[in-house]
Amino acid sequence: MKNCSICKTARALVKIPSTLEPSCKECFFLQLETKVHNTITLNKLFKRGDKVAIAVSGGKDSTVLAHVMTTLNKRYDYGLDLFLLSIDEGITGYRDDSLLTVQRNREEYGIPLKILSYQDLYGWTMDKIVAQIGLKNNCTFCGVFRRQALDRGALLLNVNHIVTGHNADDIAETVLMNIMRGDFSRLSRCTQIQTATDQTIPRSKPFKYIYEKEIVMYAYFKKLDYFSTECIYSPNAYRGYARTFLKDLERISTTSILDIIQSGESYQSNVEVKLNQEVEGKVIVGNCERCGYMSSNKLCKACVLLEGLNRGLPKLGIANESKIRKQHGEIKTPAIQNFKQLSIDREIKSPSLN
Amino acid sequence: MCDVQEEMIPKPKNNRSLKEGFCYKCKTEKPDLHVRNSDFCKSCFIDSTIHRFRNNLMKIQKGNVLLALSGGPSSMCLLDLMSNFNSVDPVNKRQPKYPNVHVCHVDVSLAVPQIETDIVDKLKADVERRNFAFSSVKVQELFGNSTTVIAKDDKTILLDVSEDASPESRLIKSLDSVSSLSSREDLLNIYIKKSIINQAIAKDCNIILFGDNSTLLAIKTIALSAKGRGVVLADEIALEHIITPGDKNISVVKPLRDILGKEVAFYNQFKDLKPFNNANLTTGLKKDCSIDRMTSDFIIGLDEEFPSTVSTITRTAFKIKAKEHSNLACSLCDAPLDEVSKFAEIMGEEVKKQTWKDGELPINHVLCYACRNISRDLKKTLEKKSLSGSLPGFVSRAAMKEQIQDYLIE
């Protein structure tokens, strides 16, 4: 019978995926939590009194993230005000089920929860969007809308930080995929622990160094339930090559996921993004004229896509973009609620918030 | 990014051929081959290959050249292109740019027994026919010569420094001491590179030519990333990068970096060059035996499906700039040392560093990130197993257990 390599006394129950060292249940929890704690403290992600929104979907990563964040906040007395933030894309049979998990989390941890729906924000659910445009390019809509929705939700909750459950596997996969697709600007950004500009609320990935396997193990032994299915509108095509290759690599060398992140961190871009400043006569990042959200063009991508949907011409938002921007650049009526005004506006349904 | 019908890799553009059924360049000859979405005739193709090689070499300063020759397809192609480069311009009879070319072969037959035994003699004959100087060193000589230091510090645990052992046994022992084939490949590659650099110093050469072609560089990009050697990637795939062993400045040049592996094969075929059996440590083994081997299979396979894979990867990788790093070099591979980074601290390595072994230098201060992985491999004997599986609906505990099964100790 093997003993735990950390405490040396208890019976080992698991092998820690990144090192394959035998460990007992309690030491496994502790080493995972400590890794997250180190990630948070060494990168100085938060300061005392910060209001932090945990982006939760009901999946394994965010469920475990919510658990670990509440645990660490208590154990190390970070002094953080935690909130749960969910985005309801309006996908029947997928998101409505997973939101039940989120509701349970709220009850368990006693943290306020805010659910924002695409329907409320944009007047469209993903079901309706797919009904109109079909299964091609639907993820473009969902991705663009979700990015803004999280920022809008964070403003509604009046938080100054968002944490997401991206794990080490996700990041390593993105590094590989960006090399293979030739997306250099994303390659140099995708390993950053925190992404922030002046205009948006900083976002961090405390699980950057945590393997997917570790998260499943944590959920298994802590008896956390989560919801897991692939999105019904995005079957397996997603990141196929990079994912398969990464799984193969992991089979050869258990550290390869961390190795790729370590490599990715050293790939620096020497281009700096400047906000509202002219570079060679052009403003690189400014604000959307219509909704005020950060945008590198007159209108932000979400407004363009929405305009296309509302006019019954969804393809316009995807192909030949400059043309559409020209056509619609002049329109004054705001389609989405002004981004900056959102911070004053509070329609928070959560009972624990005033 | 995740659309069902979105292509991860852009589709190749339309065939560039302007005149149907003829060579894309001269438009008079029938095409002999199809590369880069175009048809070429034999002579146009050879000209274009020579042109790309010359173009790269003209960017490099003058000096004494050491050409690294393994005998594989790329290095044989490099050798032929180099002798072509030196023989041009018979009319003006100008002195060639590089009058002093020394060809060096590193003999790894002790580590890789499958290599043909007479390869050194055949290479020597070929090289001397082209009026280049030739030398061959055995990789184990690195261990025997007291002036050839691998570990700058004798407290590194990786190398056996006992005086009485023969260089041969020390090489074998060094390679056998690591459990995974990936680490063994890494070590052997480091030794080969060191041997070549030592030869360059010995022969007073300030330029080293390597035969890495575009396909090999794409594989290297992914493999180095996967091994945590990202910090040296920019240098490893650059056309020219300067290394400073001792007090010397040596340019490491890869003049074939714009030529695809397929083009190398066509060039060799048209010029009737016969590469030797360039067996390596993974020859004859399964494709998932090492990171290098698997990456190579993956990229070549992907490139067959999406012909622009290699150029997309290399174009991206050429833009990478390494972040600022310390001047300290890894004792094993000479990569810049990461100052015991946040990363190591987060993973709790700081503690291990102190307790690694009494009386020895902390490993973090001697080895770079990737070489620390090799050193960890020295003791790792735990069985590695694969994991896969997808999770249905609300995950049942049984399904979760199945997913993490291999990591449970019952």
TrEMBL record, chain A:
GO terms for cellular component: cytosolic tRNA wobble base thiouridylase complex; mitochondrion. Pathway: tRNA modification; 5-methoxycarbonylmethyl-2-thiouridine-tRNA biosynthesis. Residues 286-316 form the Cytoplasmic tRNA 2-thiolation protein 1 C-terminal domain. It is found in: Cytoplasm. Gene3D superfamilies: HUPs (3.40.50.620). Its main location: cytoplasm. ATP binds at A55, V56, S57, D61, I87, G165, D170. It comes from the Eukaryota. GO terms for biological process: protein urmylation; tRNA wobble position uridine thiolation. InterPro entries: CTU1-like_ATP-bd, CTU1_C, Ncs6/Tuc1/Ctu1, Rossmann-like_a/b/a_fold, TilS/TtcA_N, tRNA_thiolation_TtcA_Ctu1, UPF0021_CS. GO terms for molecular function: ATP binding; nucleotidyltransferase activity; tRNA binding. Residues 51-243 form the tRNA(Ile)-lysidine/2-thiocytidine synthase N-terminal domain. Pfam families: ATP_bind_3, zn-ribbon_14. Keywords: ATP-binding, Cytoplasm, Nucleotide-binding, RNA-binding, Transferase, tRNA processing, tRNA-binding. Its EC number is 2.7.7.-. PANTHER family: ATPASES OF THE PP SUPERFAMILY-RELATED, CYTOPLASMIC TRNA 2-THIOLATION PROTEIN 1. Belongs to the TtcA family. CTU1/NCS6/ATPBD3 subfamily. Plays a central role in 2-thiolation of mcm(5)S(2)U at tRNA wobble positions of tRNA(Lys), tRNA(Glu) and tRNA(Gln). Directly binds tRNAs and probably acts by catalyzing adenylation of tRNAs, an intermediate required for 2-thiolation. It is unclear whether it acts as a sulfurtransferase that transfers sulfur from thiocarboxylated URM1 onto the uridine of tRNAs at wobble position. Prior mcm(5) tRNA modification by the elongator complex is required for 2-thiolation. May also be involved in protein urmylation. This is Cytoplasmic tRNA 2-thiolation protein 1. The gene is NCS6.
From TrEMBL, chain B:
InterPro entries: CTU2, Rossmann-like_a/b/a_fold. It is found in: Cytoplasm. It comes from the Eukaryota. GO terms for molecular function: nucleotidyltransferase activity; sulfurtransferase activity; tRNA binding. One of its GO terms (biological process) is tRNA wobble position uridine thiolation. It holds the Pfam family CTU2. One of its GO terms (cellular component) is cytosol. Pathway: tRNA modification; 5-methoxycarbonylmethyl-2-thiouridine-tRNA biosynthesis. Its main location: cytoplasm. Transmembrane segments: none annotated. Belongs to the CTU2/NCS2 family. Plays a central role in 2-thiolation of mcm(5)S(2)U at tRNA wobble positions of tRNA(Lys), tRNA(Glu) and tRNA(Gln). May act by forming a heterodimer with NCS6 that ligates sulfur from thiocarboxylated URM1 onto the uridine of tRNAs at wobble position. Prior mcm(5) tRNA modification by the elongator complex is required for 2-thiolation. May also be involved in protein urmylation. This is Cytoplasmic tRNA 2-thiolation protein 2. It comes from Boothiomyces macroporosus. The lineage of its organism: Eukaryota, Fungi, Fungi incertae sedis, Chytridiomycota, Chytridiomycota incertae sedis. The gene is CTU2.
